[in-house]
Design brief:
The structure is a single chain. This protein has a five-stranded mixed β-sheet, with no helix packed on it. The protein is globular, with a radius of gyration of 17 Å. A hairpin with a 2-residue loop joins β3 and β4. By secondary structure, the protein is mostly beta strands. It is built from two helices and 14 strands. The two termini are about 20 Å apart.
Length: about 180
């Protein structure tokens, strides 16, 4: 089996739309401003959906995987998930589920996006994903669902099955592990 190569793309709202929303790349628009004064401006960009009865949670996440080889993917079934790198950049790999089985990633449609410092993405529920750095460590702000974090952490710690998320190893699917390239 040959190793597939996936090119890392620049983030744009249009390119990321099948997977969710690009955040922070929009230009300031006075017409869209929710509030403005000499000290600050803020404007609405996206309504985050943590799912039915979901409690949103803000996390700090340190990413250190610089292998640029996609070995596993995870998906969260009940909530959107937003990631904003601070102090560096990340590569966000995303993939929809298969048309005939959304709980299996469609690796033919796997894509990778370079997310600059201070921009971000918000992934739709069910978007398969994983994150990489180019070197060292990048800290990110993450907005997610509290119960999804607890469920996933428990599964990773004790090997139990997660109910709000899924993690798949590509080798277990009989698929080659794509290599990411600029």
């Amino acid at each position: 089996m040959s190793t597939p190569v996936v090119r890392i793309e620049a983030l744009s709202a249009e390119a990321f739309a099948p997977f969710g929303w690009a955040l922070g790349g929009e230009r300031y628009d006075a017409a869209a401003t929710g509030f403005s004064n000499p000290g600050s401006d803020f404007w609405h960009v996206h309504d985050f959906d943590a799912g039915a009865a979901g409690q949103p949670e803000v996390l700090w996440v340190n990413y250190r995987n610089d292998s640029l080889r996609v070995r596993l993917l995870e998906a969260h079934w009940l909530t959107q998930q937003a990631i904003v790198p601070l102090g560096g950049e990340i590569v966000q790999v995303v993939c929809p589920g298969r048309e005939d089985d959304p709980r299996t990633p469609d690796l033919q449609r796997l894509r990778a996006f370079r997310i600059p410092n201070g921009q971000g993405v918000c992934m739709k529920p069910g978007c398969w994903h994983t994150s990489f750095v180019f070197a060292g460590q990048t800290t990110c702000l993450m907005l997610t669902r509290h119960s999804t974090t607890a469920d996933l952490a428990a599964a990773l710690q004790d090997g139990s099955a997660a109910s709000e998320s899924s993690i798949v190893e590509l080798a277990a699917l009989g698929e080659p592990e794509p290599l990411l390239q600029l």
